[in-house]
Amino acid sequence: MADEVPPPSTLPYPPLHLDKKFVALSDWDGTITNRDSNDYLTDHLGFGLEKRRNGNLEILSGRATFRDAFREMLESVVKNGHSFEECAEVLKQNISLDVGFKNFYDFCKANDIPVVIISSGMAPLIRAVLSKLIGDEEAKNIEIIANDTIIHEDGTWEIKYRHPSSGYGHDKSQSILPYRRLPNPPTVFFFGDGVSDMSAARHADLLFVKQKPGADNDLAAFCTREGIPHVLFEDFDRALGLIKKVVEGEVSVGEAVKVGRA
Length: 262
Ligand SMILES: [Mg+2]
Fold this sequence. Notes:
The chain is α/β, with parallel strands linked by helices. It contains eleven helices and seven strands. It has helices spanning about 35-45, 50-60, 65-80, 85-95, 100-110, 125-135, 135-140, 175-180, 220-225, 235-245, 255-260, and strands at about 20-25, 115-120, 145-150, 155-160, 185-190, 205-210, 230-235. A seven-stranded mixed β-sheet has the order 4-3-2-1-5-6-7, with helices on both faces. Helix 1 crosses helix 3 and helix 5 runs parallel beside helix 10 (about 235-245). GO terms for molecular function: phosphatase activity. This is HAD-like domain-containing protein.
C-alpha cells in the first residue's frame, strides 16, 4: 500500500536531509520514552488499561485500524473532562527518557546523523515533554514528524491526523520512502516498539525493535509474525553499540540484522 499512491498529508514535512550517509528516524512513545504517553493518558485519565490493551490487540490483528482505535482512546480522555493542558502537565510529571537516548543523540550529532522523531502522537505533547526532559533549546533542534491537535473553544480537543485517509492516521513509511528515491540515498535506521510503527517496519534499511521486560512489545510480535528482519534492543545504549559498528563500517547492515539483538 505504502509503495503505491502516497496518502495526501494535511501537515507539512521538514525538508529531507540530503547527502547524509545515515539518517536515524525514531518513534517517540515507548521508544525514546520509557512509557507510551498516550497509553498513560488512556490508562489513567481515559477508559483504562484493559480496554486500551484490547484496542492495541485489535490493531495488531488487523481487525481495527490504528487511526480509529487510537482516536477512541483519546476521545475517552476528553469525555472524562481532561483538558489538553492538563494532559501535557500529567505527562511532564510521568514520562521519562530511555536511559541511553541522550548518549545516542550526542553520538548522532557528533557524526552528522540527523535524528528525526516520527510519531503517531501529537506534536504539541511531544514538544512539551521533550522540553521538560532535555531543555527548551535542545528540544527545539529536534525535528518532529507527528500528528497534531485541534483545541476547540469549549476546551475539548481532538487529534488531527497527518494522513486521515490512511488507516494508520500517520503512515510512517512516508518519512522513509522519500529517502529511497534520492540519487544518493542514506542508510535509514528506524527505531520503534508498537502498533504505531507497523507502517514503517518494512521500509527501513535497518529496523531496531524495542523489547522491554513487562512491556507490550507489539512491534516485535508483528515483525516475527510477518517475517520482517529486525534487531531487538532493550535501550538506546545497547542499540548504540551496534550502530557505532555500522557507522564505522565494521559491520554491514546485512550483518547487523543477522546479529538479531543489540
Ligand atoms: Mg511507540
